[in-house]
Amino acid sequence: MILDLIRIALRALARNKVRSALTMLGIIIGVASVIAMVSLGQGAQQQVQSQIAGMGTNLLVVMAGSQKSGGFRGGLGTSTTLTPEDVEAVLREAPAVAAATPTVSTAVPLVFGNQNWTTRAEGANAGYLSIRARAVASGEFFTETDVRTAARVAVIGQTVANQLFPGLNPVGQIIRVRNLPFRVVGVLVAKGQSQFGQDQDDTLVMPYTTVMKKLLATTYIPSASFSAVSASATNEAQKEITGILRRRHNIRPGQDDDFTVRNLTDVAETAEQASKVMTMLLGGIAAVSLLVGGIGIMNIMLVSVTERTREIGIRMAVGARSRHVQYQFLIESVVLGLTGGLLGILIGVGASFVLSRVFQWPQLISTTAVFGSAVFSMAIGVFFGYYPARKAAGLDPIEALRFE
User: Fold this and answer.
1) Which letter does DSSP use for residue 189 in this model?
2) 369 partner at 20 to 30 Å CA-CA among 63, 73, 126, 330?
3) CA–CA separation, 219 vs 391, rounded Å?
4) d(C-alpha 259, C-alpha 346), whole Å
5) Is residue 333 a contact partner of residue 297, using CB atoms and an 8 Å limit?
6) Alpha-helical runs (H) found in 177-321
């Protein structure tokens, strides 16, 4: 019986192919929009998370100075109170901190033979690689001995290597940094651009003591990077760092810090929440099209009931019961909704691939969105087809046969 009703419903829809297609259009657009928008939002979310994670492992950044919007003072990076000894004390006294490095940087001109390039020299210690989640592609990283002796050694990024050493192996070569000779001991693995569009491979890393003594002639550092023992320990590490630095800088209770601690885990969580809200917003806007499509199905089914009143009367006159008529129109509504949903899924998946190429974001097809859209489109067929089906089932056979 059910198979017979399905065949009858499909034949009825096939008699009006154009109208059926137009009826499904709202569902198709709605489902495709939901899948494409959710995929786009999740792809953007993953990219932001991967870029933040690429900045370092469980990273916390301490900057000398503080910033107060209400007090009209800003001193980020300008205070001279942060020293390498502070970093060593934190690493020694904070159980939640796994690694630490002073960080100091300056723009420098580089010369090798007849090639020259200007980049940013970063000063760090031997823990730089683990803290900033980087690796050496060739050669090796400088050692703690190089840091203690302020050795003139450097590790360069891929961009610097391409600019100064086209077709050559940079490892072991001597470059001039502000007219001082430095030996290249390694080349970093390429990392690409940051989320801010900065080329992370246009860099030169050397011992922070070398930068402080031979390039800047300073005794303080503008910032330091710390790695917590785990992602869940970043908040505890932040509290420990703050307490140790306040004690070392003789900051009394109630006084403002002369430094700023930035927890990138908090940044990542904030970015993730913002991405989730945006994804839900985009999905909600797209879901409106599904409701519009459902209303379209109900309107067309009501028109169909009116057009086929005599057919309904004849079927009921030869023995069809009210529930059979109701099932027939309900099946037609479900077929419209489900077919539109399946076509919308195909179009939405295709649109997701196109959008990922256009925006250069990871392409993530949400199985939840796909499955949910299919179920929701079928549910729309049932919900919006129920009233027309009830109306058809409630027709009086004699009155239906009189209908012209």
Assistant:
1) P
2) 330
3) 87
4) 53
5) yes
6) 208-210, 234-248, 264-307, 309-317
SS3 85: helix
Per-residue pLDDT tens, the chain, 404 aa: give them.
Answer: 566 656 766 676 677 777 777 777 878 887 887 788 777 777 766 766 666 555 555 888 898 876 554 444 455 555 678 999 999 999 999 999 999 999 999 999 999 989 999 999 999 999 899 888 889 999 999 999 999 999 999 999 999 999 999 989 999 999 999 989 999 999 999 987 765 567 889 999 999 999 999 999 898 999 999 988 887 888 899 999 999 999 999 988 888 888 888 887 666 666 666 666 766 776 676 667 677 777 777 777 777 777 667 666 776 766 667 776 777 777 777 788 888 888 888 888 888 888 777 776 666 777 777 777 777 777 777 777 777 777 766 666 555 555 54
DSSP calls for 45-73: HHHHHHHHHHT-SSEEEEEES-EETTTTE
Question: At residue 29, what is the residue type?
Answer: I
- State the Cα–Cα distance between residues 397 and 310, nearest whole angstrom: 9
Q: Using CA atoms, how far apart are residues 37 and 41, in angstroms rounded to an integer?
A: 6
Residue 179: helix, strand or coil by DSSP? coil
The SS3 assignment for 95 reads coil
**Structure tokens belonging to residue 206:** 């050397």
User: Which pTM value belongs to this model?
Assistant: 0.60
Going by C-alpha positions, the residue among 211, 212, 194 that lies closest to residue 202 is 194
Lookup: tokens for 382: 């049932």
Can you tell me which residue has the tokens 């869940």?
Answer: 232
Distance CA 201, CA 26 (A): 48
Distance CA 258, CA 255 (A): 9
- DSSP code, position 193: B
Name 8's Cβ contacts closer than 8 Å, sequence gap at least 6: 328
Tokens of residue 197, six digits: 């569009």
- Residue 202's φ and ψ, nearest 5 degrees, are -90, 75
| Distance, CA of 339 to chain centre | 32
**At a CB cut-off of 8 Å and minimum separation 6, what does 121 contact?**
105, 106, 107, 108, 154, 177, 203, 204, 205, 206, 211, 215
> Two tokens at 217?
């002639």
Residue 229 DSSP class: S
Dihedral, CA of residue 292, residue 295, residue 297 and residue 301, to nearest 10: -160
Cα angle 175-145-191, degrees, rounded to a multiple of 5: 55
As a residue count, the chain comes to: 404
